[in-house]
Amino acid sequence: MPVSILMVCLGNICRSPLAEGILASKLPASDFIVDSAGTGSWHVGHAPDKRSIGVAKKNKLDISKQKGRQFSSRDFDSFDYIYVMDHSNYKDVLAMAKTPEQESKVKMILNELFPDENVDVPDPYYGTDNGFDMVYNMLDEACDIISKNLLKKHT
Ligand code: 4NP
């Protein structure tokens, strides 16, 4: 059985599509499934934001084929690990958990870099292009740690 990881943000068009693309690029697809979802429904079926596609492309990743979808309580059964981007995603996802085991799957992604500090990945949607570079770099560093730990644990 492949190990499955879900990245979650609010819209599923800026941060979590990048997190999905970055982590997937660091893990063998034969052993790991990486997906993303948003807590909101505005962008269901939409491609990622052009600025996320652009910063990914600049870093040699193609995330343009991804399609937005909304997080659902079924995701607690389908995924082994759930990484959220910020406090608000954490609260929204945790509110849908039904068991302590489901709750324990949910982690703030930047706690991989800054343990226990609960730092948010800032939402770049209303900001400048520069915000997307910053988000990319944060997620790349976090996904480096996540992928190394997953490969150690599961292969
Ligand atoms: P994301 O950014 O959560 O990183 O995908 C957002 C994109 C769109 C909206 C909110 C956040 N929105 O409200 O449409």
From TrEMBL:
The active site is at C9 (nucleophile), R15, D123 (proton donor). Gene3D superfamilies: 3.40.50.2300. GO terms for molecular function: protein tyrosine phosphatase activity. Its EC number is 3.1.3.48. The keyword Hydrolase applies. Keywords: Hydrolase, Protein phosphatase. InterPro entries: LMW_PTPase, Ptyr_pPase, Ptyr_pPase_sf, Tyr_phospatase_low_mol_wt. Residues 3-153 form the Phosphotyrosine protein phosphatase I domain. The keyword Membrane does not apply. CDD domains: LMWPTP (cd16343). Belongs to the low molecular weight phosphotyrosine protein phosphatase family. This is protein-tyrosine-phosphatase.
